[in-house]
């Protein structure tokens, strides 16, 4: 099993959710996070623009130390990792700074508390 963590644009979350749901991956967690990458939080270097909420509050020249993003966590079987990663890339890749990052980490064990099921059975 693997944990796939993806830092994504807020504007792409609904499309990402729909794409994962369409593949049968409907169990995941989503967090609001803030961060910055190579652009160092400079809004004028983000293209496409970060959206109406930020553009209404900040001028083009203004800097924003941390950009609001979403962090998606999903645990999948080893054989499903590439499909999930490819889907996240397909939906979120714009070619501009701020598209995000994907991290894949090994998971040693999963236990469903309610039933004590372990491993792949706990993911179903």
Q: What does the secondary structure layout of this molecule look like, with pairings?
A:
Layout: E1 2-8, H1 13-22, E2 29-35, H2 52-57, E3 67-76, H3 81-92, E4 101-106, H4 120-123
Helix pairs in contact: 1-3
Family: Belongs to the P(II) protein family.
GO biological process, one term: regulation of nitrogen utilization
GO molecular function: ATP binding; enzyme regulator activity
Report the structural category.
alpha+beta
- Biggest sheet, spatial arrangement of strands: 2-3-1-4
Q: Looking at CATH, which topology would you report?
A: Alpha-Beta Plaits
CATH architecture: 2-Layer Sandwich
* Percentage of residues in DSSP E strands: 15-25%
Distance between the termini: 13 Å
Taking pLDDT < 50 over at least 5 consecutive residues as the criterion, the unreliable ranges are none
Identify the overall geometry: elongated
The domain count comes to 1
What is the average per-residue confidence, as pLDDT, rounded to a whole number?
85
Number of strands: 4
CATH class category: Alpha Beta
Q: What's the helix-strand series?
A: EHEHEHEH
Helix fraction, binned, reads: 25-40%
């Amino acid at each position: 099993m693997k944990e796939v963590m993806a830092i994504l644009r807020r504007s792409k979350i609904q499309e990402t959710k729909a794409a994962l749901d369409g593949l049968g991956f409907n169990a995941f967690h989503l967090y609001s996070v803030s961060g910055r990458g190579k652009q160092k939080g400079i809004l004028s270097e983000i293209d496409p623009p970060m959206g109406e909420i930020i553009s209404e509050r900040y001028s083009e020249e203004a800097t924003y130390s941390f950009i609001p993003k979403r962090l998606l966590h999903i645990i999948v079987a080893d054989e499903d990792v590439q499909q999930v990663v490819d889907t996240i890339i397909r939906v979120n890749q714009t070619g501009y700074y701020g598209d995000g990052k994907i991290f894949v980490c090994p998971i040693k064990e999963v236990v469903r508390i309610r039933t004590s099921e372990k491993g792949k059975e706990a993911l179903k």
